[in-house]
User: Fold this.
Amino acid sequence: MDHPTVNIHTYIHSYILRQRLREANGTAANQVMWRARGGGVAPMEDTAIDTMGAWLDAIAADGSGQPLPAKVIADKPQDAVDACWTPSGTRIDDPAEIGATGPCTQLYPPGSTPRLQAGQPLDELALKCALRPVDPADYGDPTPEQVARLHAAFPDGVCDYDQPGVGQQPLDGTWQSYGS
Assistant:
């Protein structure tokens, strides 16, 4: 199988952002994820410019009186959905979700981060995790030597992602404003 040369260190952050949107707003309907490489990049870029232009024009023309965040979702073009472009330039509409198995996920798997692999929730909001003691059972059936190495590597414990991060506080608004 040909593996894409997508930079997972940035690509996974689209999924992290989607999770943060869901947690902050109850929806991520204002986000679209498009993926491409090779010969698919130019068609994706052309579609992105056309779609964003149509979306912004529809928002500007919306006289419904709804708040702007609602207009952004209501005026989203029908083709503004998660998609990917194959290296030959063919578009495939396919949801971008962690754990998805569709053709776009097969072409462009999202990768991960060490923190996600260690159990941090997808929102990755904890900058400094709360700690808990090392539990050897979390690592299968380690030998006594391996348990000693775990304790030496993590003398203060390992991340406990079931707890909020150290000093973590709930979101208190955002920096983004839609204006008057």
